[in-house]
# Entry
Amino acid sequence: MPGDSFGHSFRITTAGESHGPGNVVIIDGCPPGVPLAEADLAEDLARRRPGQSRIVTPRNEPDAPEILSGVFEGKTTGTSIAILIRNVDQRGRDYADIRDKYRPGHADYTYDAKYGRRDYRGGGRASARETSVRVAAGVVAKRIIASAFGGRVVGYVRQVGDVVAEVPDPAAVTQQQVETLPDGAPNIVRCPDPARAAEMVASIEEAREARDSIGGVAEIVAVGVPAGLGEPVFDKLKADLAKALFSLPAVLGVEYGVGFGCARLRGSENNDLFRPADADGAAGARVVTGTNRHGGMLGGISSGMPIVLRAAVKPTSSLPREQATVTTAGEPTTIRTRGRHDPCLLPRFVPMAEAMVAIVLADHWLRWRASSGSGAG
Amino acid sequence: MPGDSFGHSFRITTAGESHGPGNVVIIDGCPPGVPLAEADLAEDLARRRPGQSRIVTPRNEPDAPEILSGVFEGKTTGTSIAILIRNVDQRGRDYADIRDKYRPGHADYTYDAKYGRRDYRGGGRASARETSVRVAAGVVAKRIIASAFGGRVVGYVRQVGDVVAEVPDPAAVTQQQVETLPDGAPNIVRCPDPARAAEMVASIEEAREARDSIGGVAEIVAVGVPAGLGEPVFDKLKADLAKALFSLPAVLGVEYGVGFGCARLRGSENNDLFRPADADGAAGARVVTGTNRHGGMLGGISSGMPIVLRAAVKPTSSLPREQATVTTAGEPTTIRTRGRHDPCLLPRFVPMAEAMVAIVLADHWLRWRASSGSGAG
Amino acid sequence: MPGDSFGHSFRITTAGESHGPGNVVIIDGCPPGVPLAEADLAEDLARRRPGQSRIVTPRNEPDAPEILSGVFEGKTTGTSIAILIRNVDQRGRDYADIRDKYRPGHADYTYDAKYGRRDYRGGGRASARETSVRVAAGVVAKRIIASAFGGRVVGYVRQVGDVVAEVPDPAAVTQQQVETLPDGAPNIVRCPDPARAAEMVASIEEAREARDSIGGVAEIVAVGVPAGLGEPVFDKLKADLAKALFSLPAVLGVEYGVGFGCARLRGSENNDLFRPADADGAAGARVVTGTNRHGGMLGGISSGMPIVLRAAVKPTSSLPREQATVTTAGEPTTIRTRGRHDPCLLPRFVPMAEAMVAIVLADHWLRWRASSGSGAG
Amino acid sequence: MPGDSFGHSFRITTAGESHGPGNVVIIDGCPPGVPLAEADLAEDLARRRPGQSRIVTPRNEPDAPEILSGVFEGKTTGTSIAILIRNVDQRGRDYADIRDKYRPGHADYTYDAKYGRRDYRGGGRASARETSVRVAAGVVAKRIIASAFGGRVVGYVRQVGDVVAEVPDPAAVTQQQVETLPDGAPNIVRCPDPARAAEMVASIEEAREARDSIGGVAEIVAVGVPAGLGEPVFDKLKADLAKALFSLPAVLGVEYGVGFGCARLRGSENNDLFRPADADGAAGARVVTGTNRHGGMLGGISSGMPIVLRAAVKPTSSLPREQATVTTAGEPTTIRTRGRHDPCLLPRFVPMAEAMVAIVLADHWLRWRASSGSGAG
# Structure
């Protein structure tokens, strides 16, 4: 398992690059009986897809999935599920300009340092194309947690550049709000604060016009997660979620609840105090906290409160302007990326992040089924 | 491996609780021939130890390690190394006040939710005592990376409350600066900015006098790491480091390089441009970046630049004051923790974080030996 | 990893069933630079293929592989390799006769007991079709060990029914002998003893004519393996090889060297005595044993002597005759399998077993690169 | 996990050597609430202990276990359990005679080839002392399977040299029969056929008097295992059980049910036909087989019939007589082992093998809890 597998009891393994025949995921550990068809994968794949709006890359990839195994008569069999998404938009073009140069901010140099060779036509495994099959696997994970405990994962864009959305109650955000503006138009930036959404779109367009790109922050919320998921030491739920998020491209930070803000707080300000749950306690919990600075996990184990996390996503490294760099031989040069790149990664990052969070929750729920509960019953 | 193991080719597995006989780690995958004796573990264990200064908990644990296996004639044999650290300071006392109440901010409630039972005398596996054996394992990891590539991991306190240290060049900080003030006195807060160090100590003492606690940020730097460590997809170096950090108690955020600051940057501001290395390039690198906003990893693989990460650590949850909570039966009550707790976790967090970073680097170096380099040579 | 992955540093994960779209393997951990093309997979796939001779099933599967990832410009990139083999010969037919009955000796009942549902059209994951992609992965493994240490894996049929081949020196058997008879005709039973090969073919044909099937023993030899591969305790080379062999369908026994015969021996008869290697010592070994009752591993670690193992393969369970069984509702009934089945599994078992042995050796060689050798060099 | 861990959801990791301070196991994944105290470990440890009878090594090791963690108020907590067994009988003696010579049949040479260095005072990790903590972990596993499904594992000696026990119904053998002869005397050879037991003891004593040793076969039976345990492909129950058995020292063969005998059978002779279970079907099964040539697993998944396996154990390699060998420098020499060794490994092998079988069953039961059953319920 040199790095292409993730998870323990619900486990995904991926293969594929940006410029090869396609990407494939094998999902291992999905219980039998989960309803699944190729059409079920369409919605989240469309949310991740290039070409979906005017603020993402204009590349055109249909991202049509083929389920190769693990489903019979419309339901999972309990054995491994393989999903293949073929690459389509691999324009034949002259790669001479990038073949022998290291693109700043990309993995070209580090791949060469690691492997001694690489497919110079694109990002290879480091490309966001690899995430297409993660999103497909995330659909399976979302179904498992929805069925098992009514769990729901909603992600959205919290910040783009200096524009920060107001989100009074992260746990109340709906996918409807994330995908559609109040006037019914598509919420192409996926920010549930409509005023800030418009500002974010303007910022992204401004960056693109300046032949530049812009960073941001995504916030992901999981609601309905019962208390008790996560392992006590290394496989803390917060540790596995962080690994999941940092395994996505371009992430430079992850925080939970009050996050880095905790550094300025005193314990008496930071502690979330327990109180009895009302009749409508989260997931039938007996105990809740009145506030949620802890972000839904204590000791690395879910507390029954909403899990709230944020990921900082850097501005796209590929820029349609000259940047200084070196050749693969180490000589100074300049490079201007001609690919069709996202001016801001955040809108397409949201479904990727949701998928990874759902995969971690499905895994830890299956792990909980194995090792917890009554001693040997 | 339900959560008590960490790593792949260099792997640690721990057991032990705060109030049991002791904690033990089994280190698997350490190459043969690494010089190791119990005395070698003393320095880092002393840096993590309770009772080391006036700003940490006054509990008194000698933390004397016993190497049970894997070392012969002063060197590792290549087989599994077990290290035992017995608990000593388990004062017999009346636990009636905490037995039936959930301490705010602690894992009492979540452990009960997960397991249905727990050792109510302390934090069990969630206690920082478990980290003692991680620090011991970290010493082994530090030796491996030092010998293999001259790697060095230095951690320090960057922020306590509102006090933020000036650290012009993280890669230049020495352990000497972290441990000793310019006047030769112990740097008990482990901040390499002497002026801020004094302010931090004052903040911590003020918090303690207010029967409160205070949060902060630690910064960890790994220098000398060659380009090419890390796996391309899920086991990105940044992903494994983040998991390692979040597996420590009380961490609410992790970021690399410019971190969350990237959200406000444009690509042209954020990209670190490659240039030829000078004769003294890091670890013999041909290529370097003039700036290090990326924090030493691109595409999840080390770039040869210093790895710089920060972890946000919440204020200690245990407070010597009344806090509202509930009983294990769900009834409202109050609790006042009488244990001898750290008013600020940061000074003792530093060696724990260094250990985890070193463990990840040793693991990925061994993984690199296995899977990279020449095709089959 | 609930059971569809195998290996540690060289790791394969498979998906696919007998009656779905196809089978796929993801190979993780293959070093960069290994020459690989789809054509390279053809030879071993043809050895495993149905319809290859008159003594195997007449089903017709072309087993044409598609490499989906991990290869660029004719060499592996070091990242995960996916290989897809589509199913072709899935005749539409009436499954009513097997849909509600448990075939004796098959996994129908146990899959139902485990999962509560299954694809009744065939063996699903338990089908030998799953092994097609293992054989493809085995080709990659064979290349690695050949390049790394000149390792070579040769399998053959040692016994069919009462016919036992004479093989004076297992380490001297060549694939040429296994595949081709002295007269140049194909050695369809894959037994290197030509006289016994003819008897085996006769036995198999006799069994088929009797609407029956017949069992046998395969012997697999790995030569050129240097001393030092294998881990000391649970991942002994003999343990991982045994797991690999028992993971193939229909295997009821595995033994090394003198195998079960050791029960009747005294230590003085069984011990293989060390002596200095001649100039042409195996893989440059300093020390060899004059005999090889130990089968090439001591303490679970390769000794430099040829690795010799045998697997007992039961007679095909599917029989074209009435057998008593029960319905899925538990009522007595009879069943007569109409599928086109192998009268003897052994000829097609040979390449499957070779592949699994090669995969284990490639894995342990990469593991050796990681954890052994000089302490930290 | 370079080879010192075993299992997936119920996982053990061991450390320790024959001549170090002691051996330790960390058991990960044991559910909470399993009653456990140090005294519970005594019985099986005594069965494995040196010095237990006149036909085993006279070394004297008390093998007193200390539970270091994971148990509170007499029950497991659900977190990792560490058990330490210190070495006591490490006689100071002159090792000059074995320090520079490779003992035939031992791992001295292969460890040197692998690691380049080793503790020459004994077998290190390859010593049977390592199995003491496996037996302790096996007690925990036995409790889990007993509580979960009434599972019971009974091992015994089936063959020593040419003496083969008659065991008409392996599933009916009781531990009482294995441990005690009909006349109430201890059954020191652990063979449930009293007449053959006496012959076996005579054979062992004869071998010892001839300054030799003798091999044999152990048979292990697991009854009460419900249908449905095991994973479909690589982690077949038969594959994991075989790996477990081959991870023990001195095992040269493993077979299930009819085992190697299947090679001589036709399908019509070998198939076990299904029939409706009587009211007293095994573990409440609806379906049983009238015969059990398949050994309790079909497609690698338990069938509900008794699991029956046999392991071939070679004669002890250490002999109190001169044997030819080489020095570590590769020069011819002779060696005469002066250690106090077992003339036959089988009596002490039985509890080791039972432990490993129980560990695999506990692991697969927990895995079944995670991944099987209703889709997401």
